[in-house]
Amino acid sequence: MDSLENSAGLAVQFADVEAAAKRIAGKAVKTPLLHYPQLDDALGFRLLVKAETLQRTGSFKFRGACNKLMIVKEQNPGARAVVAFSSGNHAQGVAAAAAMLGFKATIVMPDDAPRIKIENTKALGAEVVLYKRHTESREQISSDIAAKTGAVMVPPYDDPAIMAGQGTSGLELCAQAEALGMKADVVIAPASGGGLVAGVAAAVKHLWPAAQVYAAEPATCNDLQRSLMEGKRVGNAPGSVSICDALMSPIPGELTFPVHKALLSGGLAASDADILKAMKFALTRLKLVMEPGGASSLACALLNRDKFRGKTVAVVASGGNADPEMLKRALDGEDFAIP
Amino acid sequence: MDSLENSAGLAVQFADVEAAAKRIAGKAVKTPLLHYPQLDDALGFRLLVKAETLQRTGSFKFRGACNKLMIVKEQNPGARAVVAFSSGNHAQGVAAAAAMLGFKATIVMPDDAPRIKIENTKALGAEVVLYKRHTESREQISSDIAAKTGAVMVPPYDDPAIMAGQGTSGLELCAQAEALGMKADVVIAPASGGGLVAGVAAAVKHLWPAAQVYAAEPATCNDLQRSLMEGKRVGNAPGSVSICDALMSPIPGELTFPVHKALLSGGLAASDADILKAMKFALTRLKLVMEPGGASSLACALLNRDKFRGKTVAVVASGGNADPEMLKRALDGEDFAIP
Question: Distance between CA atoms of B140 and B136, rounded to whole angstroms?
């Protein structure tokens, strides 16, 4: 089911993405769409990389946060504070957008989040409240803060303004590919709660109805892949883990999943071992730093070379906030076997 | 001496760079000019990065090689073969341009060159002739091959077509900065033989006469910095070494140095230790892989933060062909102390 006829009534529409792009212009970085022509023959497909690693705060998350806070400012001029929960990239995106737009930000983060993400969030001026991932509820802590302080909640994905903001990455991708004289046959974006791939699909399927949009997930947390196969939201087994700290949402969102169901061609998944190989491929062949979650789309492209043979495949590299230890782990590991 | 009045008679002119850009359009990658707005306040200057790391073969060298071979094709339609000597980036640039334009390429490389660089050069279709660095002359071997086979020599820097090709990076830099509504006050490009910084200066000083263009070198191989101070070509002490394997030419070029003398504001230098810190800064803050030589311009910008306070500083990140061990060495090392 990837027809546009199904898009009416979805929580994110093409017009919302266009409006978001106008709203965040000059605030978000217009990240480059990269082509490595020397790799095309060896890969058997034409690879394009939308480098959200180069976005403010090192991931696409600033786009949605900025769009959301701009709308809050328009609709609720008295709002002064925001609160969000996140293991890292949404935290930094919200903190940066809040600082830029004059909000006080409080971010609820697990105490085992990558150090680089906690430190960066603090450096962006946010107050960080740490919680224990396995014994405390981040939702409860966040809503307590919202109730006590009047802060506006900024959800990580299940929000139309967030989805539309993330979709601006897809809108740019289409324009940038066309400026290179190309169109993508396939677009792959990582999915956790699924806000990015929903927004990207809303943009791409409107502009290129024939393109196939896929979600990429770690094989151990492939809730969206299985949900798409079953036609309904199913969750990951409790305790499912992956090196993709950014892609560990337990189940697709209530608002995002109908978008996925209507617009995606399916879900793809990669093992942690293959994601580490993709990170090494990015470092040594693409000269880009990707965090594990950010490399999942690249891993899925490289794993499906037969399926994508001869096509133009655009992957959204959604984030680059990897600790040095994780980069070293990738560099010490195996290479993807490319001819 | 950085006045355009001195540019007449130099081996590379703005018009040559413009012509090169037309010649290599669609063959070389138009590499992005990256801005990281979140870093500007901490750095005290606005940093722009011209990411030649993302060029075909991972360095700017493809630009000059492609321009040179296109001119050979125009002027000498019977030419079928080219020869070059290089242990690294020029080898790959020439091999890639030769393969694209239908020349047989022979590259003379030292037998102790990094295996990956030899393999990459072969993978690009070139014949690699190995020589013993300490007992054989690469110039002699190359000219023997040229004499025997009629192959055209492709020099690494002391050639007007090579300089003009490398200068296309500077031409793009100016246009891309202006598209962002910016102009650089300072442009820094790495220098070995000095072809890149000569070509970049020819472009930048024509378009932005008030901009200051600097060469970046490793402190142990700062022949251009010292030559500019003395007003004549002086060499490095024999046996001078640096981790910047791409920046170890013994003395500025005969054709490049007059360009440097006329157009550059001076030379900057960074220690190997500071270059490693800049590589780590690139990996963790810019999300880019730079090889040591490619990070020298960034290192010089970071080292001169007081000098550049409040300015817009564009650095050319000239290459990204670092092996995993060198990246791990940077990741294990210290951070640049940025507030």
Answer: 8
